[in-house]
């Protein structure tokens, strides 16, 4: 399902209502809801609205989707910090689980986090799409639709790293880390419900490929079309190439 709104604020508010409504429905039949969150400026309006929504946060287990490897001192640029500032400091979740990009053994960290995802199966994924159609940090050609891992170490391609500069997350390409920990494509698709928030003109080409290109690892986000409960939330800028 594709939903188009006039601006980022309306898009974010609508996505928050949709997520909150789904959470409320799930909590009628289960004790808690497990949610994976993306960390990116594209999620700003959505997370702001979600933090104010009528949600029993004390029954939410929260996970984050990906994290840079390294960044020993630059704490402010970690994805965990972004989610803390934009959501987790504003609400009181039952628990919050973070990927540790500073772990001494990144492979062991992948295994630790994958075990948590298995223990607490994902109900909802709140995510975006990258300028190069990546989902989480599964970049084109690196993405594996049949990955046997749920969390892995990836090398970031140039477009993915440049997006971090475009988003004003880093002042220069040289400062963007080259590797990250990420949930894999199968791990994302394990979510029962996917809410995909994609604003901005720089995402227009990615949105076009997501909806029109053949489903393939060349355009990782195309796999979302095969999920039975994925909703795409766009603004007038990100839908420019698909609007009639």
Distance between the termini: 17 Å
Mean pLDDT: 91
Summed up, the domain count is 1
- How does the major sheet shape up? 7 strands, parallel
Strand-and-helix sequence, N→C?
EHEHEEHEHEEHEHEHE
Describe this structure as you would to a colleague.
This protein is an alpha/beta fold and 244 residues long. It has a single domain (2-220, 231-235), classed as Rossmann fold, CATH 3.40.50. 30% of the residues lie in helices and 19% in strands. It contains 7 helices and 10 strands. Strands 1-10-9-6-2-3-5 form a 7-stranded parallel sheet, covered by helices on one side. Strands 4-8-7 form a 3-stranded antiparallel sheet. It is globular, with a radius of gyration of 17 Å.
Structure described in brief:
The protein is α/β, with parallel strands linked by helices.
């Amino acid at each position: 399902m594709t939903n188009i709104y006039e601006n980022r604020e309306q898009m974010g508010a609508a996505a928050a209502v949709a997520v909150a409504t789904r959470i409320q429905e799930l909590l009628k039949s289960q004790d808690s809801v497990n949610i994976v969150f993306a960390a990116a400026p594209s999620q700003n309006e959505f997370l702001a609205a979600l933090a104010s929504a009528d949600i029993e946060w004390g029954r939410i287990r929260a996970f984050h989707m990906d994290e840079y490897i390294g960044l020993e001192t630059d704490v402010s640029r970690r994805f965990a910090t972004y989610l803390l500032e934009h959501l987790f400091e504003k609400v009181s979740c039952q628990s919050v689980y973070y990927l540790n990009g500073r772990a001494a053994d990144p492979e062991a960290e992948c295994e630790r986090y994958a075990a948590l995802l298995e223990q607490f199966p994902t109900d909802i994924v709140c995510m975006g799409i990258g300028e190069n159609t990546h989902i989480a940090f599964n970049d084109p050609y690196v993405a594996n639709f049949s990955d046997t891992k749920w969390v892995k170490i990836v090398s970031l391609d140039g477009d993915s790293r440049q997006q971090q500069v475009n988003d004003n997350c880093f002042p220069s390409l040289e400062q963007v880390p080259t590797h990250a920990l990420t949930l894999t494509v199968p791990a994302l698709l394990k979510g029962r419900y996917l809410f995909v928030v994609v604003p901005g003109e720089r995402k227009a080409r990615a949105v076009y490929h997501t909806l029109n290109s053949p489903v393939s690892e060349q355009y990782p986000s195309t796999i979302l079309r095969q999920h039975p409960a994925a909703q795409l939330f766009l603004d007038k800028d990100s839908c420019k190439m698909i609007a009639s």
